[in-house]
Amino acid sequence: MANYKDILKGTFDKVVDKVKDVAENGTVREVIDNGVDKAKSYSKIAKLSLQMNGDTEELKRVYTEIGKLYYQQQKDSPEGCFAPLFSQADELSRHITALSDEIKAMKAECDVDDDIDVEICEFEDVVDATENDGKDEHDD
Fold this sequence. Notes:
By secondary structure, this protein is mostly helical. About 85% of the residues lie in helices and about 0% in strands.
């Protein structure tokens, strides 16, 4: 019959020897250092990506501003490839103005107030108030 105590001790000794071997060879330290380095790299990549996205949005804003300024300066005499774009911008501006006028007319016809007050509150407050309103109705 096998002596389980000796088998377990032998297995335990092999595990201890393996741990000592790994620790002496520095493998654990290398794995930890490698993991730390990767985490730092991922963090730096995320930070740089955020900066790049912010700069890209700022560049879009600058391009838009350049386009607006150029349009304002040259709208009466567009040249070359800008002529169709200026025409499109004029057409869209007229359409927006027409839609705005239509909205104003409908509001006047329906007697809609332009100054509508909106109350900002927490979601839980709205739910509680709605639940309380429902309770009050059932109590009557």
